[in-house]
Structures are given as C-alpha cells and as structure tokens.
Amino acid sequence: MSKDRKFGLGKGLGALLNDTPEVPRGGYSEISGNEGASSAAVGSVNKIKINQIEVNPFQPRFEFDEDALQELSESIKLQGLIQPITVRKVGDNRYQLISGERRLRATRMAGIEDIPAYVRTANDQQMLEMALIENIQRENLNSIEVALSFQRMIDECNLKQEELGDRVSKNRSTVTNYLRLLKLPPVIQAAIRDNQLSMGHARALISVEDPANQLFIFKEIIDKDLSVRKVEELVRNLKQSEGGKLEKGKKADAVSFQYQKIQDDLSSKFATKIKMKVGANGKGAIEIPFLSDDDLNRILELLDW
Known about the structure:
Belongs to the ParB family. The protein is an alpha/beta fold. 49% of the residues lie in helices and 12% in strands. It has 14 helices and eight strands. The strands form two sheets. A six-stranded mixed β-sheet has the order 1-2-6-4-5-3. Helix 2 (66-79) packs across helix 3 (101-109) and helix 9 (199-206) packs parallel to helix 11. The longest helix is centred in the N-terminal third of the chain and has 14 residues, at 66-79.
C-alpha cells in the first residue's frame, strides 16, 4: 500500500475548528434538556444529550464496521469517550454533528445518554469541508475513498488542487495521483476499493494512458499476483516498445477481458459459443454460431424473432 505518511489532525481541520480547546480540568459542562442553546458556549466542551444531536447531512461516509463500532462501544463503557465529538448549534437544545459520527454511534450503542462535545459555529460549506477532511484523515480509508473525498472538496467546496493540498497537508503531486485514480476503468477502481490492488500498483497503472493496456496489466496483476516492482517493470517495457503499445494480440486480450463476462453470459443464454470482436475504436460484432436449421430456429426463438 501507499507509503505516504498517515494523516494527522493537520492544519486544515485545525484551522477550520479555530484551534480546538483543551478539555477543562474540572470536567465537562452539563447541558440539561430544559436549558436554552445559549447554555452551550461556543468554543467550549460540554456534555450534550445524544437525542438533541442530529446527524451531519454532509457526512461522506455511509458504511461503518459493526465489529469496530462494538469494540469502541465497549471501550467507552469502561473508559468513557476520550475524544469529544464536534457539533454546531442549530436551535434551542438542537445540535448538528460536524465530526465524530463513529464516536456518536458507539456512545449511543453503549446506552449512554449524553456525550462530550465541542460546540462550534459553522456554515454549510464549512460543515461539508470539515466532514470531508475528517473522513480523509481516517487511517482505514482506502485510496478510492480518499480520491472521491478529494474530488468532492474540489467540486463542492470550490477548492483548487493547491488549496486542497494545504487543507489535508499533502503536496500537489500526491493529490493529483489520488484524483487520477478516478480516471481508471471501473473494474480497476473496484479492485483498489476492495484492497485487491495497493496504491503502488495503482500509481503504476495511472501512468499508462491506454485503458485497454491498463486492463491487460490489471489482469496480469490478478492472475500472476505481480508485485509492485514487477508491474513497474511491465509498464516500463510497455513505454519502451514501439509507440508505447502492447503487442496486437495482447491488446486484443485486454479488450476481450473487459467484455469476457458479457461473452460468457451470452454463451450461457444461447447454449453455444458466442464470439465477440471489438475494434480499437470501440466498434465490434457479436457472432452466434448454429449447427443446423433446427439450432438456428432455437436461437431465433430465444431472440423472440
């Protein structure tokens, strides 16, 4: 996997949160359900009723590991929640989560009614940006999830790549490499998402321009369990070959791999060996062989001819 240093809190989120205050020595301020919103001082740490907190609508992460949540929940039961969540006030005794949904879920799972929280003010764009930055900082995030969060920050927060790099403490080339993952064929993106390919494999693949060649190399990685070094060597050989192209037969193999599932499904449906031919321009033909007039009639019936 990538050897990029892991994300810490970073100056991006810290700046947005205006330098998170320390937990007061005397503990957290209690906020009862009958007190007004003014009771939760902005910038302070307070204990807030969980039923007064609504989920952040900009949360970019929808799946949470149930086993990991259960482990965190058991820890919270024994030790309490060490790191407060962050919320913003949206009305009397109503708060909206900015960051910390996993901690909120685990605390609720533990049967605890209130939770320590930093109370902040933030507009919707800040909410989205903070949620995305917190999401990016998760250690177990795969490269495609990071890339998607980067793209959302560019599209929805109107950031340039340099500004994005500043927010997440990454240089521009690293940001660019993540974003380029989203231009890979979907089957390769899925393999990266499912941890079948490391970021090292992915970096080698994004340096290949032709999608057919990318698919061929991807198939070689999966079939032969190629190391990152072997893939880099394969890519170098590709670029050194005439025109930077694979041999004609291998390129055809790459294309047929892309359409293999369709060809197999059609062969199963028609009970005959279907052949697909795909040209470099994406045009092609499907050949359905038949053994006799009766066999032809059977195929025509399947086509509802």
